[in-house]
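Newbie here. two chains, one complex. Structure please?
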Amino acid sequence: MTEAAPQQLEAGPPAVRAAEPVVHRSARNIGDPTYRFLLTAVALVLPFLLLAIGGQLLVGGWPALHKFGIGFVTKSTWDPVAEVYGAAPMIFGTIVSSLLALLIAVPLALGTAIFLTEFAPKWLRQPIGFLVELLAAVPSVVYGLWGIFVLIPMLRGIAVPPLRAALGWTPFFKGVFYGPSMLAGGVILAIMIVPYIAAVSREVLLAVPATQREAALGLGATRWEAVWSAVLPYGRAGIIGAIMLGFGRALGETMAVTMVIGNRHDLGASVLAPAYTMAAAIANEFSEATTQMYLSALVAVGLMLFLVTITVNALARILVWRVAKGAAVGSKAL
Amino acid sequence: MRSARAVRRRVKSATMTGMVAALAILAVLPLLFIFGDLVHKGASSIDWNFFVKGPAPAGEVGGGVANAIVGTLIIVALGCLVGMPIGVGTGLFLAEFGGGRLGWIVRFIADVLNGTPSIVVGIFAWTWLVRPMGHFSALAGGAALAILMIPMLARTTEEMVRLVPNSLREAALALGYPRWRTSLTIVARTAMGGIVTGALVAVARIAGETAPLLFTALGNLNFTTSIREPMQSLSLLIYTYATGPFEDWHRIAWAAALVLMALVLTLALAARWATRQRFGNKSAI
């Protein structure tokens, strides 16, 4: 490629050759490949980081994975004293708290995205969009603080008594509610992932061509019918991607969850009981892990978390890209 | 019969419009709650001493968070020092040479790493820096934050550089500028406002990070500016104090959270303002 440029110049009219000072031509010959080389080297840092993180986690977690095998994910005893590690409760807690968060967050986020792109008057779009964006800017630890001192008392006083009255007969709302619980973790996660799902699905909806709406409206559809039958189906893959991005966020969220979920290695159906998540376990126990095996078990938990979030994110990205090709959809929000 | 159905459809449309509007309001409600509580519970504890004094001995009343404020600034600065050149460089690469397969791979990895739990990055920084060095340090914390910053910055930089009209690039090339000079002095300079915005957003996000600092910077009850020692940050302080047993700690945690939130908000607003200057209302969310 670098050799092609001078040849083209030779072939050009004489005036062009005369206007090109010799110094510049040689500078280009060195400068451009150097520039490209440097930027490429810098850009290779990211693939290297991904491999290094993955490799490091694998090496660190291998002793535990090797010793406990499949029992590491199926057994539920986590006993640092006896050196027995089974991560089932925290895997269960991670998945359940994230699903609980989706259950609450998806309607809110999709409602917000649809409202902002389809129905809101122009003057309202900016302010509400900005508030949603700010929701993503609040640090996790501040959510945790708020969760401990405001959300949990609120749940105890307002939300749990009626929930228990209505659904207390199911296994999901049995037992005493002390405060720190799966429910509190799910609710705080929901609040935290709403902005991500809303921002990405909003961009997906914006990428739906206007002709899609116009055609539906032209056929006599009401505005809601146009959204429901023309816009949403068009963006379906992207919206599913947005939801998965939110799910990935929820799986890996650490601080706020560890502050409100109770941090107990228990496996139970009731959302009123304390639980644990993988990220919370690492945050809580890593710096106290005294033995090699304890440390290795925690790193192995980190490895699982890493692989799961990478898979979820990659799938989500592909789905979002399918709708809004090329654009860095959602990267602003993430 | 036909008109009854038309009415029903119109009523349904109006109902659903109201419903999504209600959902949107419900979604931003927690934000107002949180801001209200931060001001309500935090503002009364903030005075001059809060900013200039170190913490009081555990269990005693009073003291400030000067060590945490300085620590946050130092750790974030370290993160920027490493993360910014790499992040912006990667973004430039993606925008200028990102058409090929390597570009696709790097872009994809940036997006995937953006969603990686920050606690995992903490483990990584611990194994690479803390364990070989033998002790926790602000340096390791800064490195962890840098890793979080790079993919964010790469993607926003790319987006902003892509907004530069191609005609500018062509004009520079036609004048005989080599590509590298065009890229640096024309394209990157035109996109500077946007790149700064992306940087501010990234800084705002890492300034509030806690999980990657838990076992890198660790936290420190004393004042230190040595980056080879464990260092306190506002986020670590909020975590320790909020989960601690003392009433007075909880009070300080709220005040520190208000300070941290103010810092993050200032950065976010500055970012928004910088974007608006350059691109009007178009590029903001």
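Moderator note: Chain A has one domain: 48-323. The beta strands of chain A are 78-79, 84-85. Thread marked as resolved.
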